[in-house]
UniProtKB/TrEMBL annotation:
Keyword Flavoprotein included in the entry's annotation: yes
Organism of derivation: Mycolicibacterium sediminis
Keyword Phosphoprotein carried by entry: no
Domain FAD/NAD(P)-binding: residue ranges: 5-294
Keywords for this protein: FAD, Flavoprotein, Oxidoreductase
Name of protein: Pyridine nucleotide-disulfide oxidoreductase
InterPro entries assigned: FAD-oxidoreductase/Apoptosis, FAD/NAD-bd_sf, FAD/NAD-binding_dom, FAD/NAD-linked_Rdtase_dimer_sf
Length: 383
């Protein structure tokens, strides 16, 4: 019987993927997941969609018995306060846990809305956040969503579909203009507004006063519910304090998920990870990519050869519309918008090669785009 011990910090897709993969390669090892969350591991994508709309309560990543079957100890409500890499000991909620390998998948936390009264706005990151938001929506007739990233767009659409009068506020004239381009932003705006929400672009939030959101252009919007979807900040402080290399607030990881500290690995939103396919380090905040990185971390921690090389990608559902995106995620030189029957495709290129594709009702382009991006080939000519 081996006495190998794996500690995983974090219970999101990267953490669960790491634990599950490690178990496959080390069937007799002791595995413990430490998480600050007080809920059993759950899927985050439905929180701004099906769950918020009230269409489902089933968001568990695995049934509780799965953890028993896998012999994975799940320790909830145990935020990690210290990592001693010399002793190989993690301290969480006052308890010490020894490890032979450590995988850090501590994720990220919502960035507070930095305006007077910003603390009054609800947030949407955890299941507890989503439950609070859904409960509040049950007695609300109006809502203001601040921030037009994909979470903001999804939440605005979901609340509008519940019958609330929803205003989505963002500084850009159209959602995601800087990231995806003006034409793509206009189409995303159309999808949001097709659910009944109103997009209010070109102005930021100056303050929140009670139930009133005051915009920088002088407009005041009163709402029963206010949600700030204003991005996230990586939870890297404990790792940095332990001497684990951090750059731009993210743990630096190689393609095999290793860090600068022996037997310490990292994956998911908290990392800046080298991608062999891209040939450079990438910052990715997508669910599937976190799961993929977690599997690499679990395999590497178990002594296997594994590296991250996949082209990052995700789906977003704005109401009933599924928008899909593959990209290296670090910019582009040129974009080309192509109309499709009932949808569209946007091809993104840099130095003549494909670096991204955004699609709506164009799944063939989505799949083709992944291949072109991974191979470093040009975008399709004349399309």
């Amino acid at each position: 019987m081996t006495n190998l011990r794996l500690i995983v910090i974090g219970s999101g897709p990267a953490g669960i993927g790491a634990a599950e993969t490690y178990r496959k390669h080390q069937p007799d090892a002791h595995i413990r997941i430490l998480t600050a969350d007080d809920r059993a591991p759950y899927e985050r994508p439905p929180l701004s969609k099906d769950f918020l709309r009230g269409d489902t309560d089933d968001v568990d990543l695995h049934p509780r018995e799965w953890f028993d079957e896998q012999a994975i100890e799940l320790t909830l409500a145990s935020p990690v306060s210290d990592i001693d890499t010399a002793r190989r000991v993690v301290t969480a909620a006052g308890e010490e846990y020894g490890y032979d390998a450590l995988v850090i998948t501590s994720g990220a936390s919502p960035t507070p809305l930095d305006v007077p009264g910003g603390e009054r706005a609800l947030q949407l990151r955890s299941l507890s956040d989503a439950t609070r938001l859904r409960d509040s929506a049950g007695s609300a007739t109006s809502a203001v969503i601040i921030g037009a990233g994909f979470i903001g767009c999804e939440a605005a659409a979901s609340l509008a579909m519940r019958g609330l009068s929803v205003t989505l506020v963002a500084p850009s004239e159209v959602p995601q203009e800087k990231r995806l381009g003006a034409e793509a932003g206009r189409r995303i705006k159309d999808l949001v507004e097709a659910t009944g929400a109103t997009y209010r672009g070109g102005t930021g939030v100056a303050s929140i006063d009670g139930d009133t959101v005051r915009l920088e252009d002088g407009t005041a919007i009163t709402a029963d519910l206010i949600l700030a979807a204003t991005g996230v900040s990586p939870n890297s402080e404990v790792a940095e304090k332990a001497g684990i290399s951090v750059e731009d607030s993210r743990i630096v990881a190689d393609a095999d998920a290793s860090t600068n500290v022996e037997r310490v690995y990292a994956a998911g939103d908290v990392t800046k990870t080298f991608n062999d396919g891209a040939g450079r380090a990438l910052v990715i905040e997508h669910w599937q990519d976190a799961a993929d990185q977690g599997e690499v971390a679990g395999a590497s921690a178990a002594g296997q050869q594994a590296r991250w090389s996949a082209v990052p990608g995700f789906w977003t559902e704005i109401g009933d519309a599924a928008v899909k995106y593959h990209a290296w995620g670090d910019g582009y030189d040129d974009s080309r918008f192509v109309e499709r029957d009932g949808g569209f495709t946007v091809w993104y290129s840099s130095a003549g090669t494909a670096v991204g594709v955004l699609t709506y009702n164009a799944d063939d382009d989505y799949d083709r785009g992944e291949e072109l991006i991974g191979a470093g080939k040009p975008v399709p000519a004349g399309e």
